[in-house]
Amino acid sequence: MADDFALPADPASAWAAAPATPLVSEQMRALVTQIFEPTATATHPRSEDRHSGLAQQAQIDAPPPASALCSAAHAAFAAALGPEHVRTDASTRAAHANGMSYLDLLRHRLPAARALPDAVLEPADEGQIAALLAVAAEHAVAVVPFGGGTSVVGGVTPAKGELRAVVALDLARLDRLVELDEVSRTATLQAGLTGPAADALLAAHGFTLGHVPQSFERATIGGYAATRSAGQLSTGWGRFDALVERLRAVTPAGTLVLGRAPGTAAGPDLKQLLLGSEGAFGVITEVTVRVRPLPQARRHEGWRVESFAAGAALLRRLAQDGPRPDLARLSDETETAMGFATGGEQGGEGCLLLVGWEGGEADVNGRALATAALLQAAGAHPLGEPAAASWRSGRFRAPRMRDELIDLGVAVETLETAASWRDLERVHAAVGEALRDALGEQMRPVVACHVSHLYAAGASLYFSVIARRDPADPVGQWQRAKHAATDAMAAAGATITHHHAVGADHAPWLAAEVGEEGVALLRAVKAQLDPAGIMNPGKLLA
Ligand SMILES: Cc1cc2nc3c(=O)[nH]c(=O)nc-3n(C[C@H](O)[C@H](O)[C@H](O)COP(=O)(O)OP(=O)(O)OC[C@H]3O[C@@H](n4cnc5c(N)ncnc54)[C@H](O)[C@@H]3O)c2cc1C
What we know:
This protein is α+β, with helices and mostly antiparallel strands and 542 residues long. The chain is built from 19 helices and 18 strands. The protein starts with 25 loop residues before the first helix and ends in a 13-residue tail after the last helix. The site of flavin-adenine dinucleotide has 39 residues, from strand 3, helix 8, strand 10 and helix 16. Keywords: FAD, Flavoprotein, Oxidoreductase.
C-alpha cells in the first residue's frame, strides 16, 4: 500500500503547482465574507514561487537589495562548491527568504518587509559542507540550513545578527538512500530528501518511513530531525525524533556521528542535542531511522462524540489501556461545526473523532473491532469510513487554502502545544480565551482546535485561528495574539511547541520551558560546536 505516501492525485493539493480552480469553494468564500466582513484584501497580487503560490511579484516590482557577500567570501564559496552552486540571482534568493507561517505569507505580499539571503549555497556532500562552514567562519557569514523551507516559526528567516552577510544552505542535493538494513529494519537517508522522495526510495524495497506531517510534500528528512517533527500517524508509529537510531552532523567544530546501538548506557544520549537543534549547532547530513514494511491493511474511521471532554476521555483510555490507534484526531465543537477536518464536507454537532490503524491485516482488524466496541459502549456514534476519507483527501490542501483565505482579507494561522491529560481541557480553554481576547471581539475571531497526537501521559492540542485582518497593522495584530497564546501555554504548564519547534518566534519563551540554566546549557553547547556563532543566528536561542 505505497500509494498513501505518494503525492495526492489531486494536483490542486500539490504545493508546487497553482490550483486550476480555487481550493476555497464559492460557498466557503461566501461564508468567510459573511462571518468576517473583511475590510482588507490582498496587499499585493500573487504569483508562483517554490513555496506555495506566494508573491514573487513583490520581488519583480521592487529590485532586491544587492547581495552583501564580499567578493573574497564569494570566491572562496565558489572554490569549495563550484561557481554554479553559489547562487546570487534574485529569484533563488527570494525562494529562500522565508518559511511558511502566516507572517511569512504576509511578508511575501509586503515587499519592504522581506529580507533575502545574500546567496544560496548548494553543497553536494559533507566535505563541501565542512569547507563552506570554514569559509563562513573566516568571513563572518551566517549560515541558515534550508530543507523544505516549511518552517512556521521563523526557522529559515535569513537573519545575520552581528555578522556581515547571511547565506541559505540548500540541502536538496543530499538526496540519497545511503543504506537500507532490511534485517534491522533501518534506513540511512540523506538530509535533503523530501518525504515523498524518501518514501518512494523505501517503497521500492517494500518499506516505508510512514512519517506524514501535513507539510509532507515539501519538508525534508533533515528538517524533520532538526525540528522534532510529528506526523499524522505519530500516535502509533512515533514522532520523528523517536524513530532516529543514528545521525551525522557537520558542525563548525567538526563532524559528529551519534548513535551506535539501539540501546546504550554510555552517558547522556547526545543524539538528542542535535534532534531539535534547528540548524543552530550544525548541519544534519544523514539520519538512520527505523522503517516498517509497507502496511498490508489500512482502516480509518469517523465517530461522533457528544463533547470535546467526552472525546478526550476516550482517547486517554485508548492511549493508556489500548488498543492504541496509529491515527487519532479529535476536533473540538468549533472545528467540528466548521467542518475544518473534512474540508467543509462533514460539519455537525458534537465532536468529530477520527481513529485509524495501519499494518498487518489481522492486527488492523483486531484493533479496529476492539476500538469500535469500546467507543460504542461509551455512546459514540459511528460515521464509518467516509468521514475519515474526506479528511484524508483534503489533508494536504490547507497550505494552499491559507493563501486564498489571506487574499480574502482574513488573518489565518495555526499554533500548537501539548499538555498532560489532567491539564488538557484547562489548556484548551486558556489558549482559546487568550487568542480571542488578544484579537478582540470586533475582529470576530474563530478559534478551533483538535487533538492529534496521543501519549500515555497526555496529548497535543492544535489550534486554527481565523479573524478579520487589521488592515492598518496586520503583522502587529498577529504578533500580539501569538504572544498572548504562548504566554497562556507557558502559564498553564503546557509546552510552548509540540512539533513546530522554537525558531525565532518561540525563542523568547525558551527559558519559560527549560529554565535559565537550561538555556545556559544550550548556549554552552553552541559555543563548543559553533564558536564563531555562524549557525542560524537568533533561532532556538534568542
Ligand atoms: C502547512 C504546514 C503544515 C505543517 N504540518 C506539520 C506537521 O504536521 N507536523 C510537523 O511536525 N510540522 C509541520 N509543519 C512544520 C514544518 O513542516 C516542520 O517543522 C518540518 O519538519 C520542517 O522541515 P523542512 O525540511 O521544511 O525544514 P525547514 O523549514 O527548511 O527548516 C526548519 C528548521 O530546521 C533547520 N534545518 C533544516 N534542515 C536542516 C539540516 N539538515 N540540518 C540542520 N538544521 C536543519 C532550519 O535551519 C530551520 O531552523 C507544517 C508546516 C506547514 C507550512
